[in-house]
């Protein structure tokens, strides 16, 4: 199997330096002349958003931003814990209010099982008022630390919500922050700051998550979900046939029962993938990015990844004619591939690496005009820019053809095998391609 995959990569590697994908730099728009009026995107004012559904740490997120001449300032942001059991009981049993797909109206939804949603219990606003507290609770102190990290991530991304990465240990709150910002900015476009905006657990809409390609059995799996009033109303798990695109795997009665059972198991276990008893790796890979979009108010059409989160290493089985053995380590998180290390060890001393060998680096610089370290940095960038991390779209770095081909072969083998299976226990040993 490995040899077959390797030979499939031969032609791609050979053409890598000639036919790589090159993205054109967008043309810079000419600045408007001084005589033209400046058109502002947002209406000046303060916009407040809060959640009506507790997060897993029992806190409620809130955000207030101020906008003046399109300059956005975060006035207030944090998480507040419910103080009384009466408050929690009222929140759980609150009737669900209607929420539009654009989130332009307030929504209230459930944090706990859906069965409670039809209760006629009083609303949270009529619950007994909490006694005055002295300082933040323990949960709020932990949430405050998470909020600082989330704000730091927001600042690092210069306010670009699409670039924000979930803060480790505070993923749910990161997605909530992104959704609150998106919602506040949406209201700021129309200038509607008359009332506080209240959000349910998920953003309303119809979502679809689909695999990027057909599996070895000729099926491309997908999952669909509908969110109404902040709650998941329905989930479908199915697959498209490669030879007959109108055929679905669930057309088979046995498969239909199997796939329906998986979808229902997801609902029955509180929409928590980790709690599912009907385990299905493909379903989880489809639902994980979809849930992120639901929580953050993101895209409705999602291309999932077959990759499994984890850290993976590939290394050549032998040393090359110069005494070097290349290896690469990849970190995969939420389908995103990050190159943690690409280097080579020497046969005379395996603690000696090519990136730290100053003599070798100097010789390469004199011979090709580039160092190994420079080549690694450029290859890492080119892989990140490729669609779905395809090594066939990575151009060879001028002056580092051998290193480029080694990098693409090691990465390609990892992504085609163990990174899909999730087997990260030991390095993947890769055979070198034979020279033509």
Quick structural summary:
Helix content is about 30%, strand content about 20%. The protein has about 425 residues and is an alpha+beta fold. α1 packs across α10 and α5 (about 170-190) packs across α7 (about 280-295).
Q: What fraction, in percent, of the residue positions are helical?
A: 25-40%
Unreliable stretches, pLDDT < 50, 5 or more residues? 1-25, 88-128
Number of helices: 11
Range of strand content:
15-25%
Could you characterize what this model shows?
- The chain is α+β, with helices and mostly antiparallel strands and 436 residues long.
- The chain contains 11 helices and 13 strands.
- A 5-stranded mixed sheet has the order 12-11-10-9-13, covered by helices on one side.
- A hairpin with an 8-residue loop joins strand 5 and strand 6.
- Helix 1 packs across helix 10 and helix 5 packs across helix 7.
- It is globular.
Question: Top keywords for this entry?
Answer:
single chain, 436 residues, alpha+beta, five-stranded mixed β-sheet, disordered N terminus
Please outline the helices and strands:
Blueprint: H1 2-14, H2 16-19, E1 45-51, E2 59-68, E3 71-81, H3 85-92, H4 138-156, H5 171-190, E4 197-199, E5 205-210, E6 219-228, E7 231-241, H6 253-268, H7 281-296, E8 301-303, E9 310-316, E10 324-333, E11 336-346, E12 349-353, H8 358-368, H9 372-385, H10 401-416, H11 418-421, E13 428-430
Parallel strand pairs: 1-4, 5-8, 9-13
Antiparallel strand pairs: 1-2, 2-3, 5-6, 6-7, 9-10, 10-11, 11-12
Helix pairs in contact: 1-10, 5-7
